[in-house]
Automatic annotation (TrEMBL):
Protein name, UniProt field: SDR family oxidoreductase
PROSITE patterns to which the protein is assigned, alphabetical: ADH_SHORT
Superkingdom, taxonomy of origin: Bacteria
UniProt keyword Signal, yes or no: no
Entry's family note: Belongs to the short-chain dehydrogenases/reductases (SDR) family.
InterPro entries xrefs: NAD(P)-bd_dom_sf (IPR036291), Sc_DH/Rdtase_CS (IPR020904), SDR_fam (IPR002347)
One of the Pfam families matching this protein, by short name: adh_short_C2
Organism of derivation: Sphingobacterium zhuxiongii
GTP-binding in keyword set: no
Span of the signal peptide: none
Length: 247
C-alpha cells in the first residue's frame, strides 16, 4: 500500500524547488494534493506535467491570512478532508546588514516566511484535528544558527522552529503531529538566483558531503513526517543538512 493513500495534503510554495519535489513524492505515494503558490505559470506547468486528477493548483499568497483560509477551503470542497499540510512557501529576501536592511524588506520576509506559517496552521488545524494528521513547517539550518546579511530570514526561520515546538505540544493529544524540517543549502531557484558561482562553491564545502542537497532529499524527510511511520514524533526540528550544523 502507498504511504499516503486516502490522505489529503496542502503544499504551499509547491510549484518550485523543495515544494515541487514534495508534491511529486506525495502524489506518487497516493495523496490528493492542493498546491498553493503565487507563481501561476509554474503551478500550471506542474499540473500539466503530472496530468493527475488528484492534484489542484490554487494561486495564493502565503503572507495573506485570507488566502491561507481559501487554500484550506479548496482542500475540503474538492477532497472532503485535510490530513497533511506542508507550510513551505518562502523567500530569501535582500542581502544586507541589520543597519542597512530596509524596513519593507524585513517585513516582507517575516510576512511570508513566519506569519505565513502561523496563518497556515491557524486555518489548517481545526480541519486536521477532525481526522488526525501531520503538519510540516519548512524551517532551515538558519532556524538554528545565524548567517550574516540575512537577519530577517534567520529570525523568521528561528520563529518557525519556536512556533512548531509550541503548536506540537498544543495538538499532540488532539491527533495532530507538528514538526519542522531544517534543510541545509539545497540546489533550487531560491539559492541559484541569490548566489554567484563562488558563493555556491563555498557553501558546498560547508556540508560534509561537499555538495548542496537536492530537493528530492528533503522531500523524503517530509514524506516520513507526513506518514504514520513517524507516529511518536512531534514538536521537533529535523535537519536534512548534509552535516552543516555538526561542523
Ligand atoms: P523556490 O524559490 O524554488 O520555491 C519557493 C516557492 O514558493 C516558489 O514556487 C515561489 O513562487 C513560492 N512563493 C514565494 N513566495 C510566496 C508567497 N508569498 N505565497 C505563495 N508562494 C510563494 O525555493 P525553495 O528553495 O524550494 O524553498 C522552499 C522553502 O525551503 C522555503 O521556505 C525556504 O526558505 C526553505 N529552505 C530552502 C533552502 C534552500 O537552500 N533552497 C534551505 C533551507 C530552507
Amino acid at each position: 500500500m502507498k504511504q499516503l493513500e486516502n490522505k489529503v495534503a496542502i503544499v504551499t510554495g509547491g510549484a518550485s524547488g523543495i515544494g515541487k519535489a514534495i508534491v511529486h513524492l506525495f502524489i506518487q505515494e497516493g495523496a490528493k494534493v492542493v498546491v498553493a503558490d503565487l507563481n501561476e505559470k509554474l503551478g500550471d506547468e506542474l499540473i500539466d506535467s503530472l496530468g493527475d486528477s488528484n492534484i489542484i493548483f490554487v494561486k495564493a499568497d502565503a503572507s495573506s491570512a485570507e488566502d491561507n483560509k481559501k487554500i484550506v477551503e479548496v482542500a475540503i470542497e474538492n477532497f472532503g478532508a485535510l490530513h497533511i499540510a506542508v507550510n513551505n512557501a518562502g523567500i530569501g529576501g535582500d542581502s544586507a546588514t541589520v543597519g542597512e536592511l530596509s524596513i519593507e524588506s524585513w517585513k516582507k520576509v517575516i510576512d511570508i516566511n513566519l506569519n505565513g506559517v502561523f496563518y497556515g496552521m491557524h486555518y489548517q488545524l481545526p480541519e486536521i484535528e477532525k481526522v488526525g494528521g501531520s503538519i510540516i513547517n519548512m524551517a532551515s539550518i538558519l532556524g538554528q544558527v545565524g548567517f550574516a546579511n540575512s537577519s530577517a530570514y534567520v529570525a523568521a526561520k528561528h520563529g518557525v522552529v519556536g512556533l512548531t515546538k509550541t503548536a506540537g505540544w498544543e495538538y499532540a493529544t488532539k491527533g495532530v503531529r507538528i514538526n519542522a524540517i531544517g534543510p541545509g543549502f539545497i540546489a533550487t531557484p531560491l539559492v541559484d538566483n541569490a548566489l554567484d558561482e563562488n558563493a555556491l562553491k563555498y557553501l558546498e564545502t560547508q556540508h560534509a558531503f561537499q555538495r548542496l542537497g537536492r530537493p528530492e532529499e528533503v522531500a523524503e524527510l517530509a514524506l516520513w513526517l507526513a506518514s504514520d511511520k513517524s507516529s511518536f514524533v512531534t514538536a521537533s526540528y529535523y535537519p536534512v543538512d548534509g552535516g552543516y550544523l555538526a561542523k
